[in-house]
Amino acid sequence: MKPISFRNDILPLKNQLYRLALRITLDSAEAEDIVQETLIKIWNRRDTWPEIENIEAFCFTVCRNLALDTIKRHGNRNESLDELQMDRADGGHTPSEQTIRHDQIRLVRDIVDSLPEKQRSCIQLRDFEGKTYKDIAQILDISEDQVKVNIFRGRQTIKQRFQEMDSFGV
Prior knowledge:
By secondary structure, the chain is mostly helical. About 70% of the residues lie in helices and about 0% in strands. The chain contains eight helices and no strands. The longest helix has 25 residues, at about 145-170.
């Protein structure tokens, strides 16, 4: 097994850790603090790195736990992710189509944000970060079957709520 490098193995995970923390806390400043704290904790444990089987999963686990501790400490607030709006110009669509698409993306994001924490984390790690079921199970400390169930239920809820809200024009 090759030695773990903070610069090459851990620091590149920073953006993925941020997205995970943001998905849990729904607060960009809080997510940034959590990533900083995660990186500090991992650095301070550098003497145990050789014993860690999957450093990436370890980093995500630390980040997730810190994010969960943060929302427990502050209470579970439900704020929107307006900082992440997709305001990129899309030359292939009319302004009306762009607005509809933008609203649909925001609707899906809001539905994902309203999911229970485990479903939200599973979907974030699988669909947004591209993690394997095995990695997600290790990160969240649940079985692979539980990961699959959480993803299935989360996707079903997203699909159902999106269709309900989209058909009512909400």
